[in-house]
Amino acid sequence: MRTGEEDARIHGAVLELHGDREAVIEGCLGVYDYSDTYLKLRLPKGSVILFGKEFELTAFEEERISIKGKISSLEFGM
Question: pLDDT tier at 2 (50, 70, 90 boundaries)?
Fold first, then answer.
């Protein structure tokens, strides 16, 4: 039987969205690439790209990253 946290994991990470202005990702292994319109993050089983603008990394400790800005969409990759 799976736990709630296992069900919440996407590509080996847990993502919390606070509206379209903040994302907190547990399980982030680093930043692959970024520009003024996207941020591509490395996850244990792939990646996630946040699209938007005005991104600000407010915290990056161990495997937890907090990002503020205007998030317009997310995309998952392998």
Answer: very low
